[in-house]
Design a protein that fits this description.
mainly alpha; 47% helix; 8% strand
Length: 78
């Protein structure tokens, strides 16, 4: 779901998993795609066949990594 920081007015995407064991690789990938799609929409980035989607693929990877950090409780980013 889309969220907004009331103090800074920054946009974000919130992915909610009710339990850590619900964070299977397929579910994380699925939800990460939706998060990427929201971000791409905000930035007016369209899906194009070929190499133009490389940035979106990296974005999905970053989102998946963030989910993995939550699952393992080992954070790279503050």
């Amino acid at each position: 779901m889309n969220v907004i920081n009331k103090k800074t007015n920054e946009n974000g995407v919130l992915i909610v998993f009710r339990k850590r064991n619900y964070m299977t690789s397929s579910t994380v990938a699925h939800e990460s795609f939706h998060a990427m799609d929201n971000i791409a929409s905000w930035l007016s980035i369209e899906f194009i066949d070929g190499a133009a989607n490389e940035a979106l693929a990296y974005l999905i990877g970053w989102i998946v990594d963030c989910c993995y950090q939550v699952k393992t409780n080992k954070f790279k980013y503050e």
